[in-house]
Write a sequence for this structure.
């Protein structure tokens, strides 16, 4: 007996068992976030007791204390500035580099891509410690500038590799047709390629922003008091008094929830960008 043909556009369902499994997996992945949210919304007297207290009157006191008794706003501002600046610089440098590597194949391009991959694979300390010495020597230690530039250097290989795949998915005949119309390479890049790669560029920007927004090791090595970021602030609060521990949890929630919400809103662009970049290697 022939299997009935599926209607065009119909989607294969995962079934009730698959739905239950996926729900449990999602809950397990979100359990640390849920537990942190519960801890920071409890009164301090019962926040960390064992066994845990599950029935309580929710309070936002830890969030209020975080803003009123600490310099969290300064750490948050540093985090946003560094993430935005490093993302913009990474794109400005990565877009033309990725376009050139996709349009001029050869041993030089392969060597550069492999070097970028090796650099990205190095242990983070092997990269950050020389940056620490250089920043101290130049007198720019503990500044937003040095932290942003360090994150650009660390995330640039990923940006180039991702954008290079996006550019490679566009037929070269489009470049040739533009050249016949009198366009130069930089005009092809700015007037044709960049508008075509909107989802791909947005995908790269989102990933680089997330990497910079949550980076801890680079920030803790290259900053002290003036340019510290939220992950550094959270680490300084751990192991202290219970109110400070709750403040650390509140800061972690404020760092995590916006990222999750933004990723949920931008998931359509992430999927579209990654799909377009996987057409051709």
């Amino acid at each position: 007996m022939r299997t009935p043909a599926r209607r065009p556009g119909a989607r294969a369902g995962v079934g009730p068992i698959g739905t239950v499994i996926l729900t449990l997996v999602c809950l397990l992945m979100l359990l640390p976030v849920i537990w942190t949210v519960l801890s920071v919304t409890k009164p301090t007297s019962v926040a960390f007791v064992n066994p845990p207290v599950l029935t309580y009157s929710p309070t936002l006191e830890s969030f209020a204390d975080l803003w009123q008794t600490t310099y969290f706003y300064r750490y948050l501002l540093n985090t946003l500035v560094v993430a935005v600046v490093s993302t913009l610089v990474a794109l400005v440098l990565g877009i033309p580099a990725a376009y050139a590597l996709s349009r001029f194949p050869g041993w030089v391009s392969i060597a550069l891509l492999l070097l970028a991959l090796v650099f990205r694979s190095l242990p983070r300390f092997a990269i950050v410690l020389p940056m620490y010495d250089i920043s101290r020597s130049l007198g720019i230690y503990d500044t937003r500038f040095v932290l942003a530039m360090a994150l650009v250097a660390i995330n640039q290989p990923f940006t180039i590799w991702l954008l290079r795949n996006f550019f490679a998915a566009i037929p070269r005949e489009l470049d040739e047709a533009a050249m016949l119309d009198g366009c130069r390479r930089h005009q092809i890049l700015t007037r044709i390629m960049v508008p075509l790669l909107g989802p791909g560029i947005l995908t790269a920007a989102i990933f680089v922003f997330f990497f910079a927004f949550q980076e801890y090791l680079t920030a803790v090595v290259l900053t002290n008091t003036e340019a510290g970021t939220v992950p550094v602030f959270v680490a300084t609060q751990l192991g202290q008094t219970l109110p400070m521990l709750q403040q650390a949890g509140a800061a972690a929630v404020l760092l995590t929830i916006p990222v999750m919400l933004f990723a949920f809103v931008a998931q359509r662009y992430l999927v579209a960008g990654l799909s377009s970049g996987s057409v051709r290697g």
Notes: DSSP finds 13 helices and no strands in the chain. Residues 277-281 have pLDDT under 50 and may be disordered.
